[in-house]
Amino acid sequence: MLRCTRKGWAGGPALGLFLLAPLIGEYLHGNMSVTALPWLVLTAPLYGGGALLVREAARRTRRGWPTVFLLGLAYAVFEEGLVTHTLFNPSYFGYPLLSWARLPVVEMGAWWTIFVLTLHVVWSISASIALAEALVPHRAAEPWLSNRGIVVIGIVFVLGAATNWLATYDLEQFVPAAEQLTGTAVTVVLLVVAAFRVAGRRHSPIGWRSPIGRAAPSPGWVATTAFVMTSVFIVLGWFPGWPTVAVYLGLYLIGWLLLRRWTRRPGWSGRHVLALTGGALATYAWYAFPSRPLVGAAGPVDTAGNVLFALGLVGLLWHARRATSMSAPAPEWLS
């Protein structure tokens, strides 16, 4: 499962992603305080296991980021719909999540559904994978787990999901209706199928690369754009409702058009993917400071923890930038 090779310990990147996913998804984000680090035992199997399975499925089939995004969305629907049930719980942690931009036919909240699924797709899964790969760019295109390792991580993921389900039920005493659970399961399956059927292009992350035309924008411009757009997305989360849903859909459209244009231009590379990742992660870093953690101590100790996580992010991005600039260009389907 984990072995030593001439390139180093084969399990290093996998273990790194296993820990990065929950640290980014919950701690850098500010949902959990630094005093809740022991909860990694509960969050890593679900977040880290999910991120590893998504990455292995995409990279073993030599598929790019559209497949990662769709598999990340399948993971998000699985976690929030079948594990923690926040997509259907009218009072999760005391918050009336379904009352904002309510969809009465399916008993869901449009604002919360878009918001929480985006958090998982962009940050918990995609950004975690992109950062982990940027730290070891010479191994970014290859599998990180053996076949036995995939089985083990699969078991760990299932156990993590079951443990989180039990913990959530113990706190909330809520189970969605059978129709909601069935619809969620079908949605997860359809997203997985779409990840390998619709997003099956292996030669470019968004579309076919054009050999002529304007060069790709600078990584600095890409990072700034990512930071601004993700910051707008996060800030609007403080104003839930139908107007915010409309703006979210507009941000999706703008983001898709920008990525489609940028990734088709000559010069788009792994450095640009890292820039996108860094801009998005910087948003999570600042957002943690005005946020109050749902788990763990608040106050000065939480602020100190946010500083620690932000500095850790800066260090990882610095190392990833150095590693990416010194490595050979990534395969086109990966960059």
UniProtKB/TrEMBL annotation:
The keyword Transferase does not apply. Keywords: Membrane, Transmembrane, Transmembrane helix. The chain crosses the membrane at residues 35-54, 66-88, 108-136, 148-169, 181-199, 220-239, 245-261, 273-289, 295-318. This is Uncharacterized protein. It comes from Cryptosporangium aurantiacum.
